[in-house]
């Protein structure tokens, strides 16, 4: 009895002391280790690690509903104490004592090796860059700015934005309030929670610090996505495969994750899709080969469904379909726990879809976006290989695991076909959400490649492992080389793989735009009572800097109009009269940042035929000859509206 009292006391003492001495980041680590120690349905180290993190993602999404309304909101002591207390309570109720895996299997070594390579490739392009360089990678999609807005808003409000409908208007313009407030927020909420522990703080930091935390969390999420893909492929391969068979297959999956289309989800700055698709991969694995403990399997499936719903409910039809297949296969309706899990899961599962009913329309599915176009031939190759892996193995579709795998692959393909057909019938082609659903088919196909391991030579025990492994890798090496050198949508162009370009430092995004945004935010952390507009250099750089500065300065409510206005010169061009009209309409003072005397974007006539922005092909001079330069336009407006316009002659960080 005394030991349990001590355990419950420590559940609160540890978060309190760690918070007071500034090392609260140890609490999430202890929570993950605690969940791992109570797992019984998964035996290996990576089995427990992946399942623990995946279950915690769903659990934190649900707990966020409580954290949003209790008095302490996102205070790390309250959240940490609650989580550790819950773990102690589970141990007491089940009679389980914390134990961690003691065996390190050779299959774990193979997974660790390939995952280690993915981690090195993931972090290498970022650790060698400053914050501007890191943030600049995610700028071209420009969606990352609004993901930061949601992350920062959750931290400021102390909970899910949709639970504070009367308080979100100060963060964004009225026309975006409902759309952003109700947007799927699982990843953003989890990042806001982790931010509190990382900084040992009970409130938001300045905008530059907050976006730095978000960038590193986004990078860590991609690393976990890679682990989820590799682990699921290994699980689908089954326990009978040897390390020699496993290494080349995991090498192929890892190469495709980093050098193929999946990395575009990362560099385009889609944190919630990345988290949602990682959970879909894991769900695919435990539906094909369920956990050995029935109760843990039920809990895991329920929490994965909730996590997918809170993060990216576009994938919920897929997740529900394969979960329903598993439930039918094991006759879950005969188990009272199935009904209990369904009852407890129904409410949280419906939160995000219900909040976004206004967007659940055919029109929404035809909206454009910034997702990269997937490599169609590469997707076809993966699909064909996945089909071979499923049907060509011993017993073929007579194997329950392969039947489940086939259902998963067929469901993902069906979703792609249905949406693609609808978009073609409506638009005459496919866009945005088709690429998103193709991502789903891609990851299901990739993890299904685990079945290829059983088709490779097993090797002989008396032969050296390295020699056998090299022989296995040689079988799949051409595919690895292809995706490494020519992956991505332009697969016929050598060295155009997005991952390769990122790893080699060729892909930079807009680091100068990021540095301008950081400069402007550091000069005026709270925006200084104005909307800050970058006119220092090229149009795209100015565009990115203006929108990101407005979010970091918590000023997106006024920055959104300028974000839209900055983008128009790509097609139509702006005159000084248009510029002046923006100044007159602005409800707050306009602060214009200038630097380069040659920087220009204005035209005399909107019909100017040559005005098409191309990245840095003409330096900063994009305006029409005879039109005002940026400095001339800024000074003209300052003279005409001295109380409304301020001009700042700043020196960009790259000068």
From TrEMBL:
Task: Quote the protein name from its UniProt record.
Answer: Uncharacterized protein
Give the originating organism: Dactylosporangium siamense
Which residue spans traverse the membrane?
12-37, 49-70, 76-96, 108-128, 148-165, 213-233, 245-267, 274-292, 298-325, 337-358, 378-397, 409-434, 440-457, 469-488
Keywords associated with the record: Membrane, Transmembrane, Transmembrane helix
What's the superkingdom here?
Bacteria
């Amino acid at each position: 009895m005394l030991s349990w009292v001590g355990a419950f006391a420590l559940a609160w003492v540890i978060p309190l002391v760690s918070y007071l001495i500034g090392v609260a980041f140890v609490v999430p680590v202890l929570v993950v280790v605690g969940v791992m120690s109570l797992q019984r349905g998964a035996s290996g180290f990576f089995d427990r690690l992946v399942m623990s993190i995946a279950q915690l993602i769903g659990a934190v999404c649900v707990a966020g509903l409580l954290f949003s309304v209790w008095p302490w909101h996102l205070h790390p002591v309250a959240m940490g104490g609650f989580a550790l207390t819950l773990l102690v309570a589970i141990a007491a109720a089940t009679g389980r004592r914390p134990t961690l895996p003691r065996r390190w299997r050779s299959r774990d070594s193979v997974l660790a090796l390939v995952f280690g390579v993915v981690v090195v490739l993931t972090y290498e392009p970022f650790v060698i860059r400053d914050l501007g360089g890191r943030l600049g990678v995610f700028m071209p999609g420009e969606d990352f700015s609004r993901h930061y807005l949601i992350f920062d808003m959750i931290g400021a409000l102390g909970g899910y934005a949709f639970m504070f409908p009367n308080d979100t208007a100060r963060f964004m313009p009225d026309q975006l309030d409902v759309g952003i407030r109700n947007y799927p927020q699982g990843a953003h909420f989890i990042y806001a929670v982790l931010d509190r522990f990382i900084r040992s703080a009970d409130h938001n930091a300045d905008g530059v610090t907050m976006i730095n935390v978000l960038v590193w969390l986004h990078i860590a999420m991609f690393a976990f996505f890679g682990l989820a893909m590799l682990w699921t492929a290994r699980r689908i391969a089954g326990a009978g495969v040897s390390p020699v068979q496993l290494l080349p297959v995991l090498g192929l999956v890892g190469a495709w994750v980093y050098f193929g289309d999946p990395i575009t989800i990362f560099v385009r700055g889609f944190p919630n899709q990345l988290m949602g698709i990682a959970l879909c991969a894991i769900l695919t694995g435990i539906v094909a080969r369920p956990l050995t403990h029935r109760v843990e399997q039920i809990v895991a499936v329920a929490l994965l469904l909730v996590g997918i719903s809170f993060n990216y409910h576009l994938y919920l039809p897929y997740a529900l379909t394969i979960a329903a297949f598993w439930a039918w296969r094991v006759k879950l309706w005969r188990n009272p726990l199935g009904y209990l899990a369904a009852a407890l899961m129904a409410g949280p599962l419906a939160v995000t879809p219900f909040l976004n009913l206004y967007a659940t329309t055919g029109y929404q599915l035809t909206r454009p976006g910034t997702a990269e176009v997937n490599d169609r031939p590469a997707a076809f190759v993966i699909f064909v290989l996945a089909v071979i892996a499923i049907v060509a193995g011993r017993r073929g579709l007579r194997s329950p695991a392969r039947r489940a795998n086939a259902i998963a692959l067929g469901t993902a393909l069906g979703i792609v076909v249905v949406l693609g057909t609808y978009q073609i019938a409506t638009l005459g082609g496919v866009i945005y959400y088709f690429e998103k659903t193709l991502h789903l088919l891609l990851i299901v196909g990739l993890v299904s490649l685990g079945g290829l391991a059983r088709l490779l030579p097993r090797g002989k025990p008396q032969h050296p492992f390295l020699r056998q492994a090299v022989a296995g890798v040689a079988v799949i090496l051409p595919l690895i080389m292809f995706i490494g050198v020519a992956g991505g949508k332009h697969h016929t162009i050598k060295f155009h793989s997005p991952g390769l370009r990122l790893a080699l430092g060729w892909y930079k995004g807009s680091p100068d735009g990021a540095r301008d945004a950081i400069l402007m935010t550091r000069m005026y952390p709270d925006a200084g009572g104005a909307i800050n507009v970058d006119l220092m250099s090229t149009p795209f750089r100015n565009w990115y800097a203006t929108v990101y500065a407005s979010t970091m300065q918590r000023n997106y409510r006024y920055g959104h109009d300028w974000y839209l206005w900055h983008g128009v010169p790509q097609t139509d061009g702006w005159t000084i009269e248009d510029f002046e009209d923006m100044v007159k309409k602005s409800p707050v003072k306009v602060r214009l940042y200038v630097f380069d005397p040659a920087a220009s974007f204005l035209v005399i006539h909107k019909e100017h035929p040559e005005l098409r922005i191309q990245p840095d092909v003409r330096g900063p001079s994009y305006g029409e000859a005879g039109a005002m330069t940026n400095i001339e336009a800024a000074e003209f407006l300052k003279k005409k509206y001295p109380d409304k316009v301020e001009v700042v002659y700043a020196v960009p960080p790259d000068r």
